């Protein structure tokens, strides 16, 4: 199943022809470098190394082009320590807001008075949620459900917003100037990710 909004940049036509030329042109115009895509072996190695699964649409993109520089991760040469920090960013932001901004969702039960204990509960909840896979900067896409069309989030501490209803809509929003699209517009339907 492919969820694809009314975007002019839809990744696939029922898994048919890929529409990457327009994206590549926009990314290059925005100053993003593009290398040849990752092989299927390289994609699987990254997934195994960091314990997540690229959603199929992101996997298809990274298998065609590998954007890097300007906040993008060079999945071919990223240092493990840096990647661990990037992957921990959402959890670290939640702990920051627990400590400094009194963040505590009701569904987690009573908040412990000890910060360490509170962060342990936060970690358990983050680990139970879909893994957030970094795209660029603090933009992430969940790895579950493992299908094309997952939303893209801007994640900055607990200020987490939809930045695209799917991957193509994300690129239109992030690089709207180069696509000639409205500054920020989400396509319906927006798939909800439980946390």
Short description:
It contains 7 helices and 6 strands; from the N terminus they run H-E-H-H-E-H-H-E-E-E-E-H-H. With about 200 residues, it is an alpha+beta fold. It has helices at about 20-30, 40-50, 55-65, 80-100, 115-130, 165-175, 175-180, and strands at about 35, 65-70, 130-135, 140, 150-155, 160-165.
What does this protein look like?
- The chain has helices at 21-29, 40-50, 56-64, 80-100, 115-128, 167-174, 176-179; strands spanning 33-36, 65-68, 132-136, 139-142, 152-156, 159-164.
- The strands form two sheets. The protein has a four-stranded antiparallel beta sheet.
- It contains seven helices and six strands.
- By secondary structure, it is an alpha+beta fold.
- It is 39% helix and 14% strand.
- Helix 4 (80-100) crosses helix 5.
- It is globular and about 55 Å long.
- The protein has one domain (21-179).
Number of domains: 1
Helix proportion range? 25-40%
What is the beta-strand fraction? 5-15%
Shape: globular
Q: Can you give the mean pLDDT?
A: 89
Present the secondary structure layout.
Layout: H1 21-29, E1 33-36, H2 40-50, H3 56-64, E2 65-68, H4 80-100, H5 115-128, E3 132-136, E4 139-142, E5 152-156, E6 159-164, H6 167-174, H7 176-179
Antiparallel strand pairs: 1-2, 3-4, 4-5, 5-6
Helix pairs in contact: 4-5
